[in-house]
Design brief:
single chain; 171 residues
Length: 171
Amino acid sequence: SRNDKSQPKVQPFNEVVFLYSNVNSINTKIDELRTVCNSQQPSFILLTETWLKPEIPDLLVEIQGYNIYRQDRETQRGGGTCIYVKNQIARGNVLVIPNHKYSLPSSTNPVLLSIMLNNLKFIIGCVYRPQNISEEDDQKLNDELNSIFEREKLVFIFGDFNHPEIDWNIH
């Protein structure tokens, strides 16, 4: 029999765990986040209000055992999103969905990933909707999220949608 050791064995994931938080500046909370991730071992970590800027390298917000995908707010303080994906999942199973595919407004700092896991394809996304979003961008965000849900079979969107008028306990 042929013994092919060049192909690594991929262990199926029996459980997928998502961790979401509005961190209100990741720089001041990265050590705490690393501790939580070390003990909880989530599959995906989705963060809003990272407050990262392009000049801040990934290395400063690295979490051992995870790949980071991020969208920084470049024009003003605040905002920004990122998704950390566990290395075992990220190896060859993650495709970054370019912003032009769904045309989510850049003001929402969207990160969208297509994931293939256990022969199951799904989309995960992280969005930050600023409180002062324009009516045009707000409508575009709504339309494009609806488009994603209509076109894709399995979608998980996390984020800070800044809708203080909604009672989230009943929705």
